Amino acid sequence: MTSDLPVLLAAVSILSALHMAFQARRVGWSRMKHKIMPPAVTGPPEFERTFRAHQNSVESYSVFLVVLWISGIFFNEVLAALGGIVYIVSREIYFTGYISESKKRLPGFFLVLSVLLFLTVTATIGIIQAFLDKYLNIRLL
Amino acid sequence: MTSDLPVLLAAVSILSALHMAFQARRVGWSRMKHKIMPPAVTGPPEFERTFRAHQNSVESYSVFLVVLWISGIFFNEVLAALGGIVYIVSREIYFTGYISESKKRLPGFFLVLSVLLFLTVTATIGIIQAFLDKYLNIRLL
Amino acid sequence: MTSDLPVLLAAVSILSALHMAFQARRVGWSRMKHKIMPPAVTGPPEFERTFRAHQNSVESYSVFLVVLWISGIFFNEVLAALGGIVYIVSREIYFTGYISESKKRLPGFFLVLSVLLFLTVTATIGIIQAFLDKYLNIRLL
């Protein structure tokens, strides 16, 4: 019954959710370290970089989930799940780079963009194939 | 195999994800134009309006995806996908209006609200029908 | 046809989307009360607490949806839907507590964390069972 569920996509999604929680946790730790009490979101540069690093992940997270699941269901689950793992690692590189120095967010940022591009392209190919199959009865490959 | 997948919802979701990326990109361009380096999020009014226009889209994006997919799966996929396209256009009207002047965000904002309301109402009707069918064995229409 | 759709998860998701909209609405009311016009996001402490209470919900919302749906589909739909309802109530306790006083956000915050933990643990158990079944042909229970 559960054997046709996309378990790899689900596993990567849970990992990414835990990584989001870990980033939020580190914003909380930075608040304590710099004594920045909510609702304040401004303070020393290190705190502001940590806060923005997390915000940037939040801004992308829904986009990531959309392309991850559509790539995995319409194109290939294993490839999409691998892309998802690379995304989480790239987000970690982005986060740790950003909190040390603003410019050091860039390597992780370009990795993040590359993975999102890969997932978007594969998702789009999968959608085109499914559209041709479903509405025009054309089967590629 | 892929012929029963909700390909229209997937296609609209990918378009909306690309539109989110395009909005983020314009925040980046506004940073360059006004020389506002991350992690700063304050600056000239035009930059702050651009930043907030994107943030507002981020705040609504998960809500949009929820009502889009539930409306499309529980009510009608074609109608929901059309609603999704209207949503993306409304978000663009909101964004370009907002960055030119704060008050000009309002027409797009009310369009966005209207589409979200439409998707929420159709999703709710679909859920009620599915609930009656699944748990009480009552089939409307 | 619709009788095997996860209608309880869909219903809870729509309720949570409406609750997100209600929180956004209260930020709007707080803007009017304190005459804080967009794109400004700073002002009297009560406005800033209301703004941050909503932002915190936005930051968690995708994470909530991920663990809600995976817990509901891979573990147990009724339990996950009940968890979702507790999450919405906890978010309301968090929001109303936070807007009255920063420290009063904490009881709701710990409730929110508890529900997210419950959904994450049940989702993980469900994924492990599905993984063993699908890839190793091992059926627990």
Account of the protein in words:
3 copies of one chain form a homotrimer. By secondary structure, chain A is an all-alpha fold. Chain A has a single domain (2-136), classed as Four Helix Bundle (Hemerythrin (Met), subunit A). In chain A, 80% of the residues lie in helices and 0% in strands. Chains in contact: A-B, A-C, B-C. Chains B and C meet through helix 2 and helix 4 of B and helix 1 and helix 2 of C.
Task: Write down the oligomeric state.
Answer: homotrimer
**Roughly how much helix do the residues of chain A carry, as a percent range?**
over 70%
Query: What pair of chains forms the biggest interface?
Result: A-C, 26 and 31 residues
Distance between the termini of chain A: 29 Å
Number of helices of chain A: 4
**What structural class should be given to the helix and strand makeup of chain A?**
mainly alpha
User: Any idea of the CATH topology of chain A?
Assistant: Four Helix Bundle (Hemerythrin (Met), subunit A)
Query: What is the number of E strands of chain A?
Result: 0
For the biggest sheet of chain A, the summary is:
none
